[in-house]
Design a protein that fits this description.
It is elongated, with a radius of gyration of 24 Å. The longest helix is centred in the first third of the chain and has 52 residues. It has a three-stranded antiparallel β-sheet with strand order 1-2-3, with helices on one face. The chain has 136 residues and is mainly alpha-helical. It is 38% helix and 7% strand. It has one helix and three strands, in the order αβββ. The N and C termini lie far apart (77 Å).
Length: 136
């Protein structure tokens, strides 16, 4: 009989066990980075919204009302004189990384306007990925 080259079932199980062990150690770290990345993405998106709002203000002399909301950056509101938008390329910029629209308030409690996201849980407060992301 001739010995055939290849791996035995035991060798394959050992390799799969090592891979599973590595995944068990690495997966929590990756998930932690992912949740942190979404919060950081929300902060960057809010900075883009702030820039667009400043351009809107320079053109019209006022920030969009709470009623007009951030959609005023995409389409001209009825009372916005001097509007030269759109100030955003896509309406997807109005959604936070969890798919919920950013909350906009004018006048704001912390400045001329407030922009914030309620995080993954879409409820005020929270920790980690559920923590609110604010522009102030």
């Amino acid at each position: 009989m001739r010995k055939e080259d290849g791996f035995t079932l035991i060798e394959l199980l050992v390799v799969l066990g090592i891979i599973a062990l590595l995944m068990a150690l690495v997966a929590p770290q990756v998930i932690g980075y992912l949740s942190q990345a979404k919060s950081e993405t929300a902060s960057v998106q809010m900075k883009n919204l702030e820039s667009a709002l400043e351009l809107y203000y320079l053109d019209t002399g006022e920030y969009p009302s709470t009623e007009a909301g951030l959609h005023a950056l995409l389409g001209q509101p009825a009372r916005a004189k001097g509007w030269h938008g759109p100030y955003l390329k896509r309406d997807s910029g109005l959604l936070d990384p969890w798919g919920t629209p950013y909350i906009y308030r004018e006048p704001g409690e912390h400045g001329d306007y407030d922009i914030y996201s309620l995080g993954r849980d879409a409820a005020e407060g929270g920790v980690g990925e559920n923590k609110d992301v604010v522009s102030w």
